[in-house]
# Entry
Amino acid sequence: MPHLYDARSRHILKNIASAMREGAHLAVVEAVAGLDDTADRAISLMDMDMLVLCEGKQRTVQEFRSLMSEVGIELVGVARAGLQSVIEGKRIS
# Structure
């Protein structure tokens, strides 16, 4: 279900995508939900903080993929780095 934070994130990603040349890459460092049961406990707490403090949320890989594809960015990889992950996107035409 889309929320206000999705529109804000979509707007930011759309601006980034419009500034990228075709084939350019983007790296987003964020805690990604659903990758690891142990880390998900801590990420669930981060999700609550995001909801309360800034009306945001921690997203799953599929949610990042969907949001990025809406603005012309293909999610090409996710690499875990502790509780954070690096989500790699590539500008598509």
